[in-house]
Design brief:
The complex is a heterotrimer of chains A (about 220), B (about 220) and C (about 260).
Chain A: H1 6-10, H2 12-46, H3 49-64, H4 67-82, H5 88-113, H6 117-125, H7 130-161, H8 172-183, H9 186-219
Chain B: H1 6-10, H2 12-45, H3 49-63, H4 67-82, H5 88-113, H6 117-125, H7 130-160, H8 172-183, H9 186-214
Chain C: E1 13-24, E2 27-38, E3 42-46, H1 53-60, E4 68-73, E5 76-77, H2 84-89, E6 92-95, H3 107-117, H4 123-136, H5 152-164, E7 170-174, H6 182-197, E8 201-205, H7 209-215, E9 218-223, E10 226-231, H8 233-238, H9 243-251
Parallel strand pairs in C: 3-8, 3-9, 6-7, 7-8
Antiparallel strand pairs in C: 1-2, 1-4, 4-5, 9-10
Helix pairs in contact in C: 3-4, 3-5, 4-5, 5-6
Classes of the chains: A mainly alpha (about 220), B mainly alpha (about 220), C alpha/beta (about 260).
Chain lengths: ~220, ~220, ~260
């Protein structure tokens, strides 16, 4: 089996563009998911009772439906419903954010729930209001505890962007497929792809572990 | 927007077949990946630097690669590396098994590692060998801890089977999208696909929650 | 105990420690420890926390391997490899400070675990042996309970029965009562006392000075990994030769 990496090397700019899009999509998805998921998680914990049911339904539904299905539906079916076509990148952003926000909401809920009730009681005893307690006592501790889970969500997000290749988003996976088809050298192209993804993902998980190790004592009560 | 939902009922048979393949894929993968995970965990916990390194490398590799990439790579590499042309089903099965084994390896390692050292020491003090201590004392206790995580992994696996549709394995996602292409009933078929996954996945997710509650870690 | 039970000096020692040395990284846990344990003797190891008493016990049954010196059991040096120690461990029983009962097995299951798994005894025989031992420690009515349902003192007595089920020649006790409520300490010490009366060779790491004074035939005082004094209990407790021993005992409020 002779390997010929020249098609890959020659198209490095093409691939790099794909990688840039992968990272852009990942970061934007992460931001949207954090905002949306954070809101949903907080609403679940502190919101009115009637809101809980639809939120839980949303969260559990996203746990049940594969990412591929959400992506495909957002790109092909949503335009029919809304009459409004989203370009692939934005369809992917919407789909991935909606999907991952559900996981973020669960992490937020678990993080807040892990803080001992004694902490709130101590804060109330000092005369703090509910909002002050949540903002100054509960959330800071909970956020530290949520860090490792957020790290793994970031890792999952980057991996899920590769699935967006299926709806023609020209990120790295998609471009690798294109190149593999044109150059007839799929093995070389995908081997490089594996290295690229590994190099991107490995530091993410390790980095989060390290940050958490430094900050963990802040969340221990 | 004119919708024709009858396309779903007319193709119900094919959708059921697709669902069966999804389930078969998931079950077979777990049958391979659970023993696979145990082996990886025991390798990692063995004293041998070689085994530990091999296991850790395997786990790190597959946890840091998108599954869809693994599937594509398996599809192109396997025929050349092994010389035999496998069916897409087998290729998909291999990719899924490698991926899930890696996750299970971590799960079992954490589960086994969470058992207090004193428990194995008490077993050793009675004269048990490392393997006897593992079998009689550590693994039975670790199983309780590991079960909820394995259940979560199963739910993820069930969803991940949809990815092998990209190499034309006729599971549920592929079948639904094929019907969509043939009938041009995009919204109906894609919604039906989502609904079927939802109907299958929702109870599974609830079961996992129940398991987490029942077998919650208590020292 | 200390008067009726002393062995004549001519009886051969069961365990001999000569110049035993153990390191954990840079930390010297044991340095030049020498002592002897004779048949049917009760030897108590006392001393401040971290002085090496438990480490010596764990080196005796191979849970730790020594870095220097030697330990001889019935005249033969202990194997230096982990697997070789397995056979030796079958001749010694160990009771841990936090009991370490197997939570997923019943009381009966705990006591039969050793004989069935290691000695390959048949279930019926193992259970018969277990029942007799549980009866001896006063827990015959708890055979089908799980450890979580038992008090600390009860769990420790089960742990003693579990160790005895292997019919060891030496019993090692690592601070057996340190994790117990004061009310339950007595029931465990009574079992240990009876065991001593029946002639079991015992090495006991303990802070229970009254027990040591009354039951031990020989007391070894540790400090920072070395033996600072050893002798019969009358010497150690009533008329210690070394000032540090006196300081340690008075620290504990030992009034004699």
């Amino acid at each position: 089996m002779e390997l010929d990496f020249s098609p890959v090397i020659e198209s490095w700019r093409f691939l790099l563009g794909g990688l840039g899009l992968t990272l852009a999509l990942s970061v934007m998805t992460m931001l949207c998911s954090l905002v949306l998921g954070g809101a949903v998680g907080l609403a679940r914990c502190y919101g009115p009772a009637w809101l809980r049911w639809p939120l839980v339904f949303y969260i559990d539904s996203m746990r049940a439906i594969p990412v591929l299905v959400v992506l495909v539906w957002s790109y092909f079916a949503l335009p029919i419903v809304t009459g409004f076509v989203l370009p692939p990148f934005w369809a992917a952003l919407v789909a991935l954010s909606a999907h991952i926000a559900a996981y973020v909401a669960e992490i937020v809920r678990a993080g807040i729930g892990s803080i001992r009730p004694g902490q709130s009681r101590a804060a109330f005893a000092l005369g703090m209001s509910r909002v002050q307690t949540i903002r100054q006592i509960i959330l800071p501790q909970a956020l530290v505890r949520m860090l490792p889970a957020f790290g793994s969500i970031l890792s999952v997000t980057i991996k899920d962007t590769a699935i967006a290749a299926v709806i023609a988003v020209p990120e790295y996976m998609n471009r690798s497929q294109t190149l593999a088809g044109e150059s007839f050298r799929p093995i070389e192209v995908f081997m490089v792809a594996m290295v690229v993804y590994f190099v991107v993902l490995f530091p993410v998980t390790r980095g989060v572990d390290m940050v958490y190790a430094r900050l963990a004592h802040l969340g221990r009560s | 927007m004119n919708l024709d939902w009858s396309v779903v009922w007319r193709n119900a048979g094919a959708l059921v077949d697709g669902t069966e393949l999804t389930v078969a894929l998931a079950v077979l993968t777990m049958l391979i990946a659970v023993p696979g995970g145990i082996v990886l965990a025991l390798m990692r916990l063995s004293g041998s630097r070689l085994l530990t390194g091999a296991s850790a490398s395997f786990v790190e590799l597959f946890r840091n690669l998108p599954l869809i990439l693994v599937i594509y790579t398996a599809y192109y590499v396997m025929p050349i590396a092994i010389g035999v042309a496998f069916s897409p089903f087998v290729t998909g099965l291999v990719a899924l098994s490698l991926n899930v084994s890696a996750y299970n390896g971590e799960t079992f390692r954490a589960g086994i590692g969470s058992i207090r050292k004193g428990q194995s020491e008490a077993a050793f003090a009675l004269g048990m060998s490392r393997w006897q201590a593992m079998r009689e004392v550590v693994l039975p206790q670790a199983a309780r801890r590991v079960l909820p995580v394995l259940a979560s992994t199963w739910v993820s696996l069930f969803k991940d089977t949809s990815l092998v549709s990209v190499i034309a394995v006729g599971e549920l996602a592929y079948t639904a999208m094929r019907i969509r292409s043939q009938t041009f009933r995009v919204l109906e078929m894609l919604t039906a696909m989502a609904a079927i996954y939802w109907a299958l996945g929702y109870p599974q997710a609830k079961l996992v929650d129940w398991l987490h509650r029942r077998l919650g870690v208590s020292e | 105990m200390s008067d009726g039970h002393r062995q004549p000096i001519s009886a051969p020692p069961v365990l001999v420690y000569r110049g035993v040395r153990k390191l954990f990284g840079d930390f010297v846990a044991l340095s030049d420890v020498s002592m002897e344990v004779r048949k049917e003797q009760v030897v108590c190891l006392i001393g401040p926390s971290g002085s090496g008493k438990s480490t010596l016990l764990r080196c005796t049954n191979g849970l730790e391997l020594i870095d220097g010196g030697e330990i001889r059991l019935d005249g033969e040096a202990l194997p230096r490899d982990w697997n070789g120690m397995r056979r030796v461990r079958q001749r010694m029983g160990m009771v841990f400070q936090n009991f370490e009962l197997f939570p997923h097995k019943t009381v009966l299951g705990n006591v039969t675990a050793g004989p069935m798994t290691v000695l390959r005894m048949r279930r019926k025989d193992a259970e018969a042996r277990a029942m007799a031992l549980l009866d001896k420690v006063g827990l015959a009515d708890k055979t089908h309970s799980y450890p979580a349902a038992l008090s600390g003192g009860q769990q420790q007595r089960v742990a003693i029965a579990r160790a005895l089920a292997m019919e060891p020649t030496v019993m090692l006790f690592d601070e057996p009562t340190s994790a117990l409520d004061p009310e339950t300490i007595g029931e465990v010490l009574n079992v240990m006392k009876r065991l001593a009366e029946e002639g079991m060779t015992m090495i006991v790491v303990t802070h229970e000075m009254t027990f040591a004074r009354r039951v031990a035939d020989w007391v070894v005082v540790f400090e920072r990994g070395t033996v600072i004094e050893q002798g019969p209990p009358e010497q150690i407790f009533d008329a210690p030769l070394v000032a540090r021993t006196r300081e340690f005992l008075s620290h504990l409020g030992w009034a004699g």
